[in-house]
């Protein structure tokens, strides 16, 4: 005679039609539904007591371990695909809601990169990264500077930078040289930063990095590469003059903005530069898809030096676009300096004279901040 079927949990007598076998046990329909659940990740049914998750998500051990994590702020369970991280190399996850609160902070994470907003009319756009130190990494201070810069639209944002001891990085949206010079209120921003005890030149940590849009260098990839090769050649060929201009030491440059080394032609210099794969800590960073980054310059909160630096980069880029390889390779520094427009780039002319880099003329050098 066959043994009578009973529910392992409640003891109810069962038939073949009402009995459910699960996990080596026999259950009635009610106990089956009450004591087992379906994993929201893979759809597998598991014992309720073995389930992971929270009140909103039920998971098996495997899905919980490999596909989900917990928000650091609120404790909510979130899938790995929807987790947000405050920094590039951070392993601290946040849900969308908690992450949005972090993103509203005046000083963003190092990896923060909003969609660019272009200001001004023209082809060449310059995005500035200016590091400031000594005044503290305080959201309140950053908010004051942002209120000044962004009174008429978002033009500036601030980011954490691990290379700075006690400050942060100010980053501009892309702007033409004319917009940087005549419409962006950099002078007000710099004066307030100095008032709050920030410094950029007078530190051992701060740089001024300038990004230039690759699209300005030509309509095709080949045209862009030709122009970029001339830019790299210029920096290598006139390294001594640019080091003097940059206000950096050779030791500092070797650490943060090293050179590639020059070859006989622009194209060969550029090829060897790319082959070396030195990463982004080079004088001309080629790692970014949309921009070329000039990293050679020391930071400054002196407005005229800031404008002179932008004007120098603009002059290099425009000549690299306009001249062919032969003309560019044969151009001396004195020829380069002599062709700079005194009316369009007065700050650059003044700065070159102060550094004895302009046709042997000298003017009094002002204090950097």
Walk me through the topology.
Elements: E1 5-6, E2 13-14, E3 20-22, E4 25-27, H1 29-35, E5 36-38, E6 45-47, E7 52-53, E8 58-59, H2 61-67, E9 68-70, E10 77-79, E11 84-85, E12 93-94, H3 96-103, E13 107-108, E14 126-132, H4 139-149, E15 156-159, E16 168-172, H5 177-182, H6 186-195, E17 207-213, H7 221-237, H8 239-246, H9 250-256, H10 266-276, E18 284-285, E19 291-298, H11 303-322, H12 325-330, H13 333-338, H14 346-354
Parallel strand pairs: 13-15
Antiparallel strand pairs: 1-2, 3-4, 5-6, 7-8, 9-10, 11-12, 14-16, 14-17, 15-16, 17-19, 18-19
Helix pairs in contact: 4-6, 7-10, 7-11, 11-14
Write a brief caption for the model:
With 369 residues, the chain is of the alpha+beta class. The chain is 36% helix and 18% strand.
**Number of E-state strands:** 19
Main beta sheet strand tally, sense and closure: 7 strands, mixed
Rg calculated over all Cα atoms? 30 Å
Global outline = elongated
Given helix and strand content, the structural type is alpha+beta
Task: Compute the number of helices.
Answer: 14
Average of the residue pLDDT scores? 92
Fraction of residues in H or I helices: 25-40%
Strand order of the largest sheet: 13-15-16-14-17-19-18
Low-pLDDT stretches? none
Strand content: 15-25%
């Amino acid at each position: 005679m066959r043994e009578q079927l009973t529910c392992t949990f409640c003891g109810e007598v069962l038939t073949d039609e009402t009995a459910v076998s699960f996990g080596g046990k026999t259950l009635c329909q009610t106990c089956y539904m009450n004591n087992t659940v379906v994993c929201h990740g893979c759809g597998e049914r598991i014992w309720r007591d073995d389930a992971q998750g929270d009140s909103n998500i039920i998971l098996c051990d495997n899905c919980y371990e490999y596909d989900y994590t917990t928000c650091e702020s609120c404790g909510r369970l979130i899938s790995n695909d929807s987790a947000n991280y405050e920094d590039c190399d951070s392993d601290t996850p946040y849900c969308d809601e908690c992450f949005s609160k972090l993103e509203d902070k005046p000083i963003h994470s190092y990896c923060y990169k909003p969609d660019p907003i272009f200001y001004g009319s023209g082809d060449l756009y310059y995005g500035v990264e200016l590091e400031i130190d000594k005044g503290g990494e305080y959201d309140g201070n950053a908010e004051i500077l942002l209120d000044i810069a962004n009174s008429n639209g978002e033009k500036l944002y601030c980011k954490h930078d691990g290379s700075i001891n006690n400050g942060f990085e100010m980053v501009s949206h892309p702007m033409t040289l004319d917009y940087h010079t005549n419409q962006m209120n950099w002078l007000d921003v710099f004066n307030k930063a100095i008032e709050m005890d920030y410094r950029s030149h007078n530190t051992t940590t701060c740089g001024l990095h300038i990004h230039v849009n690759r699209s300005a260098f030509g309509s095709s990839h080949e045209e862009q590469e030709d122009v970029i090769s001339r830019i790299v050649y210029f920096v290598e060929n006139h390294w001594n003059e640019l080091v003097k201009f940059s206000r950096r030491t050779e030791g500092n440059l070797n650490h943060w903005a090293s050179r590639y080394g020059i070859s006989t032609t622009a194209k060969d210099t550029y090829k060897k530069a790319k082959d070396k794969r030195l990463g982004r800590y080079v004088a001309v960073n080629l790692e970014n898809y949309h921009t070329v980054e000039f990293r050679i310059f020391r930071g400054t909160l002196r407005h005229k030096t800031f404008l002179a630096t932008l004007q120098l980069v603009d002059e290099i880029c425009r000549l690299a676009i306009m001249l062919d390889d032969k003309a560019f390779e044969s151009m001396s520094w004195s020829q380069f300096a002599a062709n700079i427009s005194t009316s369009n780039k007065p700050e650059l002319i003044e700065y070159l004279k102060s550094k004895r880099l302009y046709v042997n003329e000298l003017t009094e050098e002002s204090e950097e901040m």
